# Entry
Amino acid sequence: MTSPMTLTVECTPTASALTLRPRQDSDIAIVVAAHCDEAMRRWLMRPINDEDEARAWLADQNTGWADGTHLSWAVEEDGAVVGYFVIKAANPPETLATGVGYWTVAEARGKGIASRCVEAATKWLFGGQDFMPADEIELLHAVGNEGSCRIAQKCGYVLDSVLPALPPEFPDEGHRHLRKRPV
# Structure
């Protein structure tokens, strides 16, 4: 059983520090509001429409911590929740790499929050921690999601392959970006 923990992303000369903390019941309204954003909904695997669905999603996030399959956080900047971040364990044979995923609320996009979280998580995963050891990390996104493609490139994730569409769950082709542990 993995215990939820908090991660910190240091401030930069132009950006506040970020806190990645375990999800809480108080996040439900923020999750529902964030999922009302059509620009974000387009790319989600599991859109949330109401508080009941948000509660079920939160329960799944807690289960992920408990069984060690995915570690998820609310991303806070200056005390306000501005996004979500997850690290998903490799699940052979479906996937051999640990994965990262994220979203940010509309007001926080374009501020480098997701890329800073990806970079911090990458360093943490490759830095000798024992929660979820990783030799390579994948970042998956739909081909049309240019923002996620820019984040992958900015964080040193190399385009590894184009994945076929698998409707209905994945209606569009996908990009699989990889970053390998430095030797």
Observations:
- The radius of gyration is 16 Å.
- The chain has a mean pLDDT of 93.
- The domain at 7-180 is CATH 3.40.630.30 (Aminopeptidase).
- Residues 51-67 form the longest helix (17 residues).
